[in-house]
Amino acid sequence: MTNSSQDKAPLLEIDRLSVDYGLKGVSLRAIDDVSFALRPGEAVGLVGESGSGKTTTAMAIAGLLSPNARVSSGVVRYRGNRLPIDDDAAMRPHRWSETSVVFQGAMNALNPVHRVMKQIAEPCVLKLGMSRSEATARARELLELVGIPADRGVAYPHELSGGMRQRVMIAMALACRPSIIIGDEPTTALDVITQAQILKLLGELRSQLNLALILITHDLSVVAESCDRVMIMYAGRIVEDGTVAEIFANPKHPYTRLLIDTIPNPANGKKIIRPIPGDPPNLISRPPGCAFHPRCPSAMGVCATEVPGLDKFGRARVACHLHRSSQEDKVAIHA
Ligand SMILES: Nc1ncnc2c1ncn2[C@@H]1O[C@H](COP(=O)(O)OP(=O)(O)O)[C@@H](O)[C@H]1O
Ligand code: SF4
Ligand SMILES: [Mg+2]
């Protein structure tokens, strides 16, 4: 393979992935038939309301699913090789060295009784087999990389600001030189200015280290600046996928349109966030057909009975009966 064809080959392929959670003897589907590919250096936003399956998707990819989760179908491939995502022990060599996750709320993820330097050095010892002094040198290098003077590594987590702690989390995620970083709401707990700084840092690291990025957020405006592509999730399924420019200029799915409407835009006087009416479905009572139909202003008869497939439109994909080739059975059920 030439270098250029290697560059075009997907780094990560998620192929028809479904994950169920076992809860009190019942199996509940959290993500359903999720497929997408990520290319080297690409930044993709995964956007949806709480409970739409974003974290489950991330955890499945990173091999960090909780014990009550079951991969009921589908595969994840990294550089063309199938990952044993449902086998904890077999995943060990892949975890953190191929795909790393930066979680929301660094205070909970960091150990309060250890200096941050030690916490960054730890994976270098355990995963890369470095000596203590090599690992400390690497931790100093990583701190500088994420914009923290190396000497601040002696601090305990509570001595750092929220933004600094999230930088430490990013340093830890980079320790084993992964080629993919998943940021799971990495800026949600931060103020707007710090949020912008962390997103800028992720962007800089991405180009400096040729990282691919999956940025998970419930806030569509976060992906506008940071991502090349965006995938919208609803009730465990991808409902729209396109470039950021396409999605913002010409959203096809009614849910995407409503999500865009929730973004305040002081430039045109829209300062108030307008929430999407109705509640997201829970796993126990997922509506039949298109799961969005009880909230959809464009719902038709067919929407309550048939799950729309994720159809391709050039390089974009949309799952909505409004955009299927057959125009039959399109009788409005909402006035
Ligand atoms: N460990 C778990 N056990 C049972 N249900 C879970 C578990 N983790 C997540 N869920 C459920 O799976 C669905 C998807 O959750 P999640 O992937 O965390 O969504 P998101 O990250 O988009 O908020 C939600 O309904 C959530 O309650
Ligand atoms: S399939 Fe129907 S209910 Fe679902 S988003 Fe499209 S129009 Fe709305
Ligand atoms: Mg989540």
Question: Summed up, what is this model?
Answer:
The protein is an alpha/beta fold and 335 residues long.
How many β-strand runs?
12
Radius of gyration equals: 21 Å
Order of helices and strands: HEEEHEEHEHHHHEHEHEEHHEE
- Strands of the widest sheet, in order across it, are 6-7-8-3-9-10-12-11
The whole-number mean of residue pLDDT values reads 89
Which ligands accompany this protein?
Answer: adenosine-5'-diphosphate, iron/sulfur cluster, magnesium ion
- Largest sheet properties: 8 strands, mixed
CATH superfamily of the largest domain: P-loop containing nucleotide triphosphate hydrolases
- Unreliable runs, pLDDT <50, ≥5 residues? 1-6, 326-335
Query: Strand fraction band?
Result: 15-25%
Instruction: Output the CATH topology of the largest domain.
Output: Rossmann fold
Whole-number tally of structural domains: 2
Describe the model.
The protein has helices at residues 3-8, 54-62, 88-91, 106-109, 116-126, 132-145, 162-174, 192-209, 220-226, 244-249, 254-261, and strands at 12-23, 26-38, 43-47, 69-78, 81-82, 99-102, 180-184, 212-217, 229-234, 237-243, 311-313, 316-318. By secondary structure, the chain is of the alpha/beta class. It has 2 domains: 3-98 and 178-323, Rossmann fold, CATH 3.40.50.300; 107-177, no CATH class. A hairpin with a 2-residue loop joins strand 11 and strand 12. Helix 6 (132-145) packs across helix 7. The structure holds adenosine-5'-diphosphate, iron/sulfur cluster and magnesium ion. Adenosine-5'-diphosphate is lined by residues 21, 23, 30, 48, 50-56, 66, 68, 282-283.
